[in-house]
Amino acid sequence: MRCLITGVSGFVGSSLCDRLLADGHEVVGVDCFVPYYARQLKDSNLAGARDQKAFRFIEADICKLFETDDEASAKKADELLGGIDVVYHQAAQAGVRASWGRDFEIYVHNNILGTQKLLEACRRHKSLRVVYASSSSVYGETRKFPMEETDVPAPVSPYGVSKLAAEHLMTLYHANYGTHTVSLRYFTVYGPRQRPDMAFHKLIASILKGEEFVLFGNGEQSRDFTFISDIVQANIDAGNSGKAGGVYNLGGGTQITMNNVIKLIESLAGKKARIKYVERHHGDVTHTGASVERARKDWGFQPKISLEEGLAREIEFIGKVVLPLGL
Ligand SMILES: NC(=O)c1ccc[n+]([C@@H]2O[C@H](COP(=O)([O-])OP(=O)(O)OC[C@H]3O[C@@H](n4cnc5c(N)ncnc54)[C@H](O)[C@@H]3O)[C@@H](O)[C@H]2O)c1
Q: Rounded to whole angstroms, how far apart are CA atoms 43 and 45?
């Protein structure tokens, strides 16, 4: 199979890339290294892939790379997508808290415009499948659990709005042009290579370094956490068996409060955390919890990694890879 991954140097993109290469597939990876977090981490994520013949890296902004407005650009995009079986669209400006204010422009560019440009280019290739990394943040603050794909989405952050807009573009291009799109709503992904702005990463690094961890809220907020290899497997399965135009929740089924996560990490790391509680941020939701029935029915989605095991692997990664980089 020939695959294209957008956002290939990021947390999910690079993990998916390594798995596809290990399975014997060819991968074209695209990334423009948005400066949201340290470039060193992204270079380290890509190091293994870059050594392999079956991998080709293109450093580019997807808004430019998939431009089809003039003939010359459209020809280039066609050449790139010709022969590609699946596009795994992971590129996005991530982060809920940074999405307020003037930086929303960055979210519009990378998350909405980037997706629209990609879809315009993909609709010219009828046999192509597009798997899109959507987010549980499209649901917003809800009292109904578990969250189901049929619930009316009501995001409470500009980031969530941008992810939902891109998801709508997916279903729109399917309905209007027959493009085979599948959207996957990830519920908080964690594990080795997790982004350094995410709570587990920050918490583990602070415990290992003996530094203070700033916790937004009272710690009783909970998330449905999903281990990275379960997300990677689901991307592959969705590319093979996801229904065209479909939207799927992907949750690990391990709903736990931050206060209990802290206790678990303390016991796994053998060290105490120093927590500073501060007021909750706008855009943060209180709880998330996914119904994964739809993915279970369509391709047998079954998360395999327990929270204890997943956290132990993330602790090891941060200790061995992140801290030695001086980050
Ligand atoms: N990590 C999670 O818990 C989570 C949860 C829900 C949804 N998601 C979604 O999953 C995807 C991957 O998230 P991640 O945690 O790996 O983030 P990440 O920031 O580690 O990776 C995203 C990558 O996309 C690249 N990128 C951004 N805009 C680009 C553009 N215009 N052109 C080319 N490359 C561009 C960035 O440089 C980055 O390397 C994102 O779409 C994110 O919204 C992630």
A: 5
| Residues 6 or more apart whose Cβ sits within 8 Å of residue 132 | 89, 115, 166, 167, 170, 181, 182, 183, 184
Residue 105 within any structural domain of the chain: yes
Residue 47 near residue 18, CB atoms below 8 Å? no
CATH of the domain at 30: 3.40.50.720
Establish whether residue 118 lines the binding site of ligand 1, counting it when its CB lies within 6 angstroms of any ligand atom: no
Structural domain count, the chain: 1
Our answer on whether the CB atom of 213 is closer than 6 Å to any ligand 1 atom is: no
How far does the centroid of ligand 1 lie from the alpha carbon of residue 10, in Å?
Answer: 6
E-only strand ranges, 163-221: 180-186, 189-190, 212-216
Report which ligand 1 atom has the smallest distance to the Cα of 63: 31
Q: What is the pLDDT of residues 129-140, one digit of tens each?
A: 999 999 999 999
Domain that holds residue 43: 2-194+225-253+289-304
Other beta carbons less than 10 A from residue 297's beta carbon: 10
* 248 labelled catalytic: no
pLDDT one-digit tens code per residue, 61-75: 999 999 999 999 999
User: Is the alpha carbon torsion for 216, 218, 222, 228 positive or negative?
Assistant: positive
Q: Is 224 in the pocket of ligand 1 (CB under 6 A)?
A: no
The catalytic residue among 36, 132, 139, 159 is 159
pLDDT average per 10 residues of sequence, the chain (327 residues): 98 99 98 97 98 98 97 98 98 95 97 98 97 98 95 97 98 98 98 97 97 95 96 98 98 93 96 95 90 98 97 98 95
**Ligand 1 proximity of 94 Cβ (cutoff 6 Å):** yes
